[in-house]
Amino acid sequence: MINRVYASSYEGFVSQKIDIANHLHNEGWCIIEAWNSDPETLLQIASSFGNLQTHVRSNEQGIVGLGGDTLSGDWKENIDEYRGVASNDPFDMHTDASFLNGMFLVNGKMQTITSPKILFLQCVVPADSGGENVIVDHQKILLELLHTNPSLIKTLSAPGCAAFCRDDQIAYGVSVYRKLSNGNFGVRFRFDQAVYCPTWSFESMKSVHKNYHHNEKFRQYVPLRQKEILIVDNWRVLHGREKIFGMNRRFRRMWVSANPHEMLNAENRPRMHRAINHLAAYCDVPTMFTNLFVDIKFGIKLNLSNQLQMEDCIREAAILHPMYG
Ligand SMILES: [Fe+2]
Fold first, then answer.
1. Which residues have their alpha-adjacent CB atom under 5 A from ion ligand 1?
2. Considering the domain boundaries, does residue 136 fall inside one?
3. Residue 84 — pLDDT band, cuts 50, 70, 90?
4. Do 239 and 120 contact (CB within 8 A), yes or no?
5. How many A from CA of 240 to the centre of ligand 1?
6. Domain that holds residue 160
């Protein structure tokens, strides 16, 4: 596989940062064959990309899996809403944390919290068989849709085309496609029990999932071996997992957060509200490491003419499908 970099040490990883950056820029994902499968190795590599983001099932460092879940045990009451936990069933294509969209008070400032920028999956023990990770680069899909079906893009760019809800989290009034502050475009998607759509967007959501995310032309199968870490641009690439056979598969996961921005209060007195309590588990953990990849622009990259066409689609979307009233 071409998108694979071998690193026998952290120094070896650092020395190949240009190759890694190129893979992420060109393909949206990359595999690091690391020097061991310790949690510290995952932590070192993930921290080199920016601030980490915790999860309700993670420990304080943001590591999910293999003895994490120190932040809260409440989620276990609704464990059936957490796909992939305690189940060997296939996990359908999605971007992580589509249901995150809010803000939280950090050091006296109200900061936005949204879906993570990057996802890391570390293989500690592969499945006896099955359990391959599946990757879909949505950049390729968006390019095709711009030429063949721009009306579908317009529907999926309209704020309110989908609401994503899992356990105590909800992202309401969001869209599948959005313009990012770095000039690229982001995708937010899943199509399962956690998704609600108005009637005008339901068929479009179903169509992009069935005809593109499940189209073999766009799917890449990535069986991870022990010590390998899959790095995924979560604003560009969807991931999923095939059915697992056997009980031995052990993985860890981490997130690197989106760059939060501050929300100013009208009376300059930001405070905690009960309405945002539920986001306490999804805050940033400031990295102690230097960001080696600060110049990578994550998300879907388009050339100038496609970018202009995409911006037109987003502008028209809100007019075609007004959210209120
Ligand atoms: Fe995931």
1. 96
2. yes
3. low
4. no
5. 7
6. 4-320
Average pLDDT, whole number, for the chain? 92
Question: What CATH number has the domain bearing residue 69?
Answer: 3.60.130.10
Distance between Cα 139 and ligand 1 center (Å): 18
Ligand 1 midpoint to CA 143 (Å): 24
Residue 191 lies in a domain: yes
How many domains, the chain? 1
Cα(266)–Cα(24) distance, integer angstroms: 40
pLDDT, tens digit (0-9, with 9 covering 90-100), for 8-35: 999 999 999 999 999 999 999 999 999 9
Tens digits of per-residue pLDDT, 222-256? Answer: 999 999 999 999 999 999 999 999 888 899 999 99
Give the E-state strand segments of 215-325 in sequence order: 219-222, 228-233, 237-241, 244-245, 250-256, 262-263, 284-285
Residue 325 falls inside a structural domain: no
Can you read off the two tokens belonging to residue 281?
Answer: 């588990």
- What is the CA(174)–ligand 1 centre distance, in A? 19
